[in-house]
């Protein structure tokens, strides 16, 4: 090729962008899909091909890709006041309003909000808050963090240490003091003859044994996603959060709900913790909080943690932590508009209305000989591919069946995500039943082609 010959988008993408979370052999073989615009739940590539995005971007684009109200909220705020932080005794009016709104929609009677740019940073921030409290309250040894295997909490050094995925070992993570207990996936980890209730009790005992072994006064907090998301959409086993919270309460350990995926409607309630009937001590939020139209995250503290952190900060005059764009007024304006769309604009109602159709479609696909189970909550679900349905024998891990299914779907104009041996679906909240039908038809066609 001549040096001045036009190069494809594909080769330009690969030449100058360093990929993360991307299967490089697959990109080498298939190239990169370069996207230019979106319409509702669809995105379009440089060749004009249309894809239904059953992943809502990365769980976040819940209002689709061209919602005028979100673009207008951002534009209006850019025109009015484009940027500020939430420190040094100053913050924007939008930040004030969003904090009030977040506390109002939270499960807490009162509370406080701290802003970040992402979910990872919000988890990091919460861990630093817990470490800060330990030091301030005369318990500097209270630093250990417990999470679950298969959980996903982010990519910063701390949030990746919390994440229960083996791939983080390439970074030498987890850092010391980050402990993992069992995943509440009954179908996969329940033992022969064990009831779901007994499985839940086994996990609660494991947690308690871990706390006792490590020393209860060394544990700073327990973090859990109401439904594990990037670990393959794993809802809790029956009674899980009630059993876990009883153990944590016995030892005075806060329960932090990482609601980055579940928060703002995904499971059919504002919070996943509502769907699974527990009230945490604090909430980690991001993603749908701005419907993906601005990068933003938040720690929403319940009343007790808010008060203790306030006291500890006043004792040394400040909480020494924050990001340049914490509480960015454009992000806050977008978030206020997104929350309004979800709660008052019919999006949450639509999640509830679509859930039976979503569940029926998942159940039908789970009838396939190579789908071991489907699982999910609200508008998030996963189909687990297995080699042998009766014995639940997985495909060999080097045989990425889910990757092949997802690639075939891409060919058919459907974006869906392979996660381990599962295919994950979490369509935007603005979908109609016919969008779901299109999604399931394309996925069924891909399954027929792959198996
Ligand atoms: N927590 C959960 C439950 C997530 O699913 C994610 C991202 O997918 C994160 C935290 C990290 O958020 P971010 O990618 O915005 O840093």
TrEMBL record:
Keywords: Aminotransferase, Pyridoxal phosphate, Transferase. Its cofactor is pyridoxal 5'-phosphate. InterPro entries: Aminotrans_3, Aminotrans_3_PPA_site, PyrdxlP-dep_Trfase, PyrdxlP-dep_Trfase_major, PyrdxlP-dep_Trfase_small. GO terms for molecular function: pyridoxal phosphate binding; transaminase activity. The keyword Glycosyltransferase does not apply. This is Aminotransferase class III-fold pyridoxal phosphate-dependent enzyme. It holds the Pfam family Aminotran_3. Belongs to the class-III pyridoxal-phosphate-dependent aminotransferase family. It comes from Falsirhodobacter algicola. One of its GO terms (cellular component) is cytosol. Signal peptide: none annotated. It comes from the Bacteria. CDD domains: OAT_like.
